[in-house]
Amino acid sequence: MEILKVENLTKTYGDGDNMVKALDDVSFVIEKGDFVAITGPSGSGKSTLLHILGGVDRPTSGKVWMDGRDVYGLDEEMLAVFRRRQVGLIYQFYNLIPVLDVVENMTLPVLMDGKEVAQERLTDLLGTLNLHGRENHLPNQLSGGQQQRVSIGRALMNEPVVLLADEPTGNLDSKNSQDIIELLKASNRKYDQTLIIITHDEAIARQANRILTIEDGKITRDEVIPS
Ligand code: ADP
Ligand code: ADP
């Protein structure tokens, strides 16, 4: 089943002499439950693409459908709801809120939705992510690997349809990196969740079932990895 469809996506920043074309007429389809790695040189448009897939950054032109919904056909309010409920975003530097503790960071998207925190889900995630005993720690009291596990918890809290990760292991040593990838893969398998990871790490990209290469705003390679 098709979960994501991108059609003629173009994104430019600035104008006149300062105009940068970050994405240039990109089209592709991603199947539900796939694990896709996105690779390519720095500045090639990878983060821009991920942000547009996640409803964070509007395309200049072109369309994104997620689960049959025209994402940028939504008004701002519905787009914000879409971001909180359908998508989980994970960043290289975690983007945790420094004054909130582990549980508060993880449950923020739920609370922003005016919903009650599902305690069972929270307990489950704290266990899966090996964060028990850390519930009331602030981000600066945690190691890098732990902070990234909290950010995964936040991303998974709402059981998103698509999990998007921008260099999630870029700031971690190889042991912590593989731990993080295993957690993402487990969620991908358990919930038939679609996983899209930007990575420079060939060993991580090879664990995906598809590798998209972006160069200069265009998809230049689309490789299926046999399992
Ligand atoms: P990558 O993730 O592959 O490193 P990005 O998507 O971050 O690439 O950037 C693609 C291009 O768009 C780069 O030339 C970058 O400088 C430019 N760019 C990204 N974000 C902005 C922005 N907010 N304003 C202006 N230019 C930007
Ligand atoms: P990792 O192997 O995950 O990178 P570290 O070697 O950075 O872990 O940290 C080892 C332990 O010390 C971890 O359990 C972590 O929670 C704890 N720790 C790291 N930084 C701090 C800090 N600033 N305050 C309190 N505890 C910390």
From TrEMBL:
SMART domains: AAA. Pfam families: ABC_tran. Keywords: ATP-binding, Nucleotide-binding, Transport. GO terms for molecular function: ATP binding; ATP hydrolysis activity; transmembrane transporter activity. PROSITE patterns: ABC_TRANSPORTER_1, ABC_TRANSPORTER_2. The keyword Transport applies. It comes from the Bacteria. Residues 4-227 form the ABC transporter domain. GO terms for cellular component: membrane protein complex. SUPFAM superfamilies: P-loop containing nucleoside triphosphate hydrolases. Belongs to the ABC transporter superfamily. This is ABC transporter ATP-binding protein. The lineage of its organism: Bacteria, Bacillati, Bacillota, Clostridia, Eubacteriales.
